[in-house]
Structures are given as C-alpha cells and as structure tokens.
Amino acid sequence: MDKKRYYVSVQSGTIMENQGDASYELEIEATPDQLDKLGELFEEMDNFDQSSAIQVASALSIAYHHDESNDGYDYYLKEAYAMIHELGTEETREHIRKMNILS
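The line above is the sequence of Hydrolase; the predicted structure tokens follow.
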C-alpha cells in the first residue's frame, strides 16, 4: 500500500490529511492500516484520560503513580509516540528522540 503524509497532534489526538486544517506537532507517512492503528492508540489514550477526569471530578485522591488510569494513559502515550517515531519524517523522529519519551 502507498503511504501518504499526515499531520499529527498528540495533544488533541488528531490526525489530519491537510496541513492547514488545524495545528499539529508532528508529520508522518502512513498507510491506511497504520493510520487506523494510530487512531486506535489515540482512542485508548482518550479512554484512560476520561477515566482519570472522572476520578478528579468525584474527588478521589490517588497518587499519580498508583493510579491505573494514569498507567494506562502513559502506556498508550508511549505506544503512540513509538509508532509516530517509526512513521515520522526525519524531523519528527529527531523531535521525538530529543523528548526521551521512548527510553
């Protein structure tokens, strides 16, 4: 399958075809299947993020490192960055390397 360039915002969990549609942080080249997989990782991050928000809203006080919702979010965040690094342009890969999120 042919790869196509996409523009990714990890912060908002979005993947765009058009560079000017919204702000983005990173650029990737991906097949439709790879794009679907990255979208699934963003969905999982959102699920864990909403779970954490419910805990905050209900005034449950759990230390960050003891909170399964945070553990899940962190796991999928790292998985997303690993995939973006793999699919990214050279500039994107360098940016992620400098973040030290994959080590």
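Note on the example: The helical segments are 32-57, 68-87, 90-99. The beta strands are 4-9, 14-16, 26-30.
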